[in-house]
Sequence to fold (320 residues):
Amino acid sequence: MSLRTILNRQKNKVKDSIQRRAAKKDQLHTLTYEAIVASLSKLGWQEKESLFLQLRKQLSETGESISYAEKIFNSFSGVCREYCGKLEGLRILELGPGTNLAAGVYFVLAGVSDYTAVDALAAFPERPKEFYTNLIDELRNRPQLVGRASIPEEVMNEILTINESVGWNEKKVKYVTPVYAERMPFQTGEFDFIYSNASFEHFEEPQKVIREIHRVLKSGGFTAHVIDLRDHIDFNKPLEFLKFSPEKYVFTSPYGTNRWRASDFEKAFREAGLEIRKFVTNETWDITDEEYKNFDPFFREKYTREDLSILGVTVIARKP
Fold:
């Protein structure tokens, strides 16, 4: 037997092994949704909440870090300054921050009137006090991050104090939970600027959320959102969830997404009466013919191939 023949046989064995593993993974992906349906139907609401809390704890530490909060602040404070003209004196609302309120501290130190965050998770931020101790140290060492020459202790104490636990001045930083963004407990026209980062894809009824944003936003106010349109179960297969029909797909938080596409969001913002000032694609996926063929007919018939290929968008809109 020649060396070439031996190598080709070995190559084919490896190829077959990879294909079997891929097929098994696809099967597991399908079973995941079926298993979730069966499991959730047997759970009471307290058990479901406990499950969601456990899943939230398993999320990447990236989303819980000080550097992440700094990134969020830099991004959205820049948008706010560009479109609102300033930060000073504004009332800010963030949708779905999880358990990290550090961005709110940045905003208040930068001069906003107050920062409010809402999340559907029924738990006070679980960041340990060491997290906020480190945040304070970071800001005192780098006050230029929020446009200050220095941050005196009394200024920081007006926002939060750290003793046995973290104490918040709710006139400055308020965390309202559990709150579904579809039904927010705020007055009409209460906020100047509303934003979210990778939250909109998790809202079960995004159309209602957009209408609520329109309601609680002041006339002339702006709203900005970065929306991740990928399948969150496996980012290496960002459109895998499009294989499932609406009847078979199960919406489960925090990993589940509503599967809205870019065109859905653009249409919903306009229909809610918001003026879109910016709507840009952040990332796309090169859909193969094989992938496209496996998408459920619901998606192939409703959306263009270009629309389906969009993995993320940024939208900035104004309330007239």
